[in-house]
Amino acid sequence: MTDSGEPLVVLDGVNKHFGDLHVLQDINLTVRRGEVVVVIGPSGSGKSTLCRAINRLETIDSGTITIDGKVLPEEGKELAQLRSDVGMVFQSFNLFAHKTVLDNVTLGPIKVRKINKAKAVERARELLKRVGVDAQERKFPAQMSGGQQQRVAIARSLAMDPKVMLFDEPTSALDPEMINEVLDVMAALAKEGMTMVVVTHEMGFARRAADRVVFMADGQIVEENTPEEFFTNPRSDRAKDFLSKILAH
Ligand SMILES: Nc1ncnc2c1ncn2[C@@H]1O[C@H](COP(=O)(O)OP(=O)(O)OP(=O)(O)O)[C@@H](O)[C@H]1O
Ligand SMILES: [Mg+2]
């Protein structure tokens, strides 16, 4: 929760096309250590592509993405290493369906981080407690609510000790009564100093937890500001129009 932290994620002149569609247009964005950046904008504006590029699930055409001082390479061992520094939670609960909650959380640390099983289990239990699903470690994902599954997905990402967490609309597939339990976990994480990039339409969360709001439209960052300034005093017509639509319902 500081703007004086060093740059942790830096996008410099990033461009990405899907065929003729210029989906990321010369994106420059710096996320500092401990900062929480909320990305909002209309459907199709490139928010998911931005997240996926940071995690290198999408390639970029030009520009650079730097994570903690290292430029994301095209491929290879170094990419795997850097990628494991970036945790990601998606809209759909992408847990391993045939594995228990505990196995979901310990798998990455054991296989990728080479942590011994007892240590991984101990840490997983801590994390499951932190996200409020500690009594359910023997369950399979299908035996849990969407909100619980999403909290397990957060625990699973945290188990890899990421330097930054990306969230792409983590609550948009949830029933309304489960949204807050996930947002509360995210807000607590933000308060503890986790560096986060969060794509969300939850304006209450943005106001409460974000250090900065980045507004995207048509593949560009149109505006960035503190949540207070952005919501009360948007500067661009695109942002004014967008806010009037989402705040209207
Ligand atoms: N794999 C792909 N191939 C072709 N076009 C794509 C692909 N992925 C995304 N697009 C297009 O790129 C644009 C940006 O998509 P993106 O998913 O990043 O938008 P978004 O801001 O996340 O939208 P939403 O709010 O609906 O999730 C859209 O026009 C989309 O149709
Ligand atoms: Mg999206």
3D architecture notes:
- The protein has 249 residues and is α/β, with parallel strands linked by helices.
- It is built from nine helices and ten strands.
- It has a six-stranded mixed sheet with strand order 6-7-8-3-9-10, sandwiched between helices. A four-stranded antiparallel sheet has the order 2-1-4-5, covered by helices on one side.
- Strand 1 (7-18) and strand 2 form a beta hairpin.
- The structure holds adenosine-5'-triphosphate (ATP) and magnesium ion.
- Magnesium ion (MG) binds next to helix 1.
- Magnesium ion binds next to helix 1.
- Its EC number is 7.4.2.1.
- Compute the number of helices: 9
**Rg measurement, Å:** 18 Å
Question: What sequence of helices (H) and strands (E) makes up the elements?
Answer: EEEHEEHEHHHEHEHEEHH
Count every beta strand, where a strand is a DSSP E run of 2 or more residues. 10
In angstroms, what separates the terminal alpha carbons? 30 Å
Q: Name the poorly predicted regions.
A: none
Unique ligands: adenosine-5'-triphosphate, magnesium ion
Give the DSSP E fraction (strand runs of 2 or more residues). Answer: 25-35%
Q: How would you characterize the largest beta sheet?
A: 6 strands, mixed
Shape, per Cα inertia axes: globular
Which structural category fits the helices and strands?
alpha/beta
Mean pLDDT: 94
Spatial strand sequence of the major β-sheet: 6-7-8-3-9-10
Helix fraction bin: 25-40%
Keywords: Amino-acid transport, ATP-binding, Cell membrane, Membrane, Nucleotide-binding, Transport
Pfam family, one: ABC_tran
Main location: membrane
Protein name: ABC-type polar-amino-acid transporter
